[in-house]
């Protein structure tokens, strides 16, 4: 279990660099729930039945990710293409829905939703804009960023890209689409040898209805 504890701590640092998601749930986004080993979110239309070699990360650990990302958001400036009002609103616009960790090694999958519908016109978001922002941020910090072919998750098209830093043993991959004024983002962190485990988990996500 020691590697899992250390890996969760490392994920805090990685996700705090690449995500801006926070404590409060915006009014337009609905959270899902676990029933045994099955997670369902009717709003996002996703259902995940967790394989035996994956475990659910406890809520208190997800909260640590949220606290770290909140600090990262405070570093945003208007030079990043976001207004002062947008920066003030960030803390009430996002939710982390679930996080699961592989038993086979340091691989994690996080589902997070970000509501951009109330942002200023200069910061309205599409999946393409979301990835472009990730790319610019990655390149600014010396991280390799590669866009990959889109994938179908629960019957919907998601754009995807992977980031790799030579200083880290894991890759960071996002799967994103726009829905109901929000970005739906599956964020995976994994070493290259466990990419097939992430791919299989992503492929197993079904439509909730």
Domain module tally: 1
Q: Major sheet: order of its strands?
A: 4-5-6-10-9-8-7
Number of strands: 10
CATH superfamily: Mog1/PsbP, alpha/beta/alpha sandwich
In N-to-C order, the SSE pattern is: HEEEEHHEEHEEEEH
Main sheet overview? 7 strands, antiparallel
Structural commentary:
This protein is of the alpha+beta class and 209 residues long. The chain has a single domain (2-203), classed as Mog1/PsbP, alpha/beta/alpha sandwich (Protein Transport Mog1p, Chain A, 3-Layer(aba) Sandwich), CATH 3.40.1000.10. The chain contains five helices and ten strands. It has helices at residues 2-18, 59-73, 84-89, 127-140, 195-203, and strands spanning 33-35, 38-41, 46-49, 54-56, 94-102, 108-115, 144-153, 156-164, 171-179, 182-190. A hairpin with a 2-residue loop joins strand 1 (33-35) and strand 2 (38-41). The relative contact order is 0.19.
Topology:
Elements lengths: L1 H17 L14 E3 L2 E4 L4 E4 L4 E3 L2 H15 L10 H6 L4 E9 L5 E8 L11 H14 L3 E10 L2 E9 L6 E9 L2 E9 L4 H9 L6
Antiparallel strand pairs: 1-2, 2-3, 4-5, 5-6, 6-10, 7-8, 8-9, 9-10
Helix pairs in contact: 1-2
Index terms:
about 210 residues, alpha+beta, Protein Transport Mog1p, Chain A, seven-stranded antiparallel β-sheet, three-stranded antiparallel β-sheet, disordered N terminus
């Amino acid at each position: 279990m020691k590697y899992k504890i250390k890996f969760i701590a490392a994920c805090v640092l990685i996700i705090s660099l690449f995500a801006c998601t926070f404590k409060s749930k915006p009014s337009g986004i609905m959270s899902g729930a676990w029933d045994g080993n099955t997670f369902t979110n009717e709003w996002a239309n996703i259902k995940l039945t967790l394989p035996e070699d994956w475990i659910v990360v406890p809520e208190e650990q997800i909260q640590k990710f949220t606290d770290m990302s909140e600090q990262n958001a405070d570093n945003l400036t208007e030079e990043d293409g976001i207004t002062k009002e947008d920066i003030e609103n960030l803390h009430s616009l996002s939710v982390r829905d679930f996080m699961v960790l592989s038993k086979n090694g340091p691989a994690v999958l996080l589902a997070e939703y970000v509501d951009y519908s109330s942002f200023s016109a200069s910061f309205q978001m599409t999946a393409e804009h979301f990835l472009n922002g990730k790319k610019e941020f990655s390149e600014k910090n010396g991280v390799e960023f590669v866009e990959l072919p889109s994938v179908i998750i629960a019957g919907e098209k998601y754009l995807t890209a992977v980031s790799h830093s030579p200083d880290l043993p894991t890759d960071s991959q996002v799967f994103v689409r726009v829905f109901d004024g929000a970005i739906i983002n599956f964020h995976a962190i994994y070493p290259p040898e466990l990419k097939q485990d992430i791919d299989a988990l992503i492929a197993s996500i079904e439509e909730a209805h």
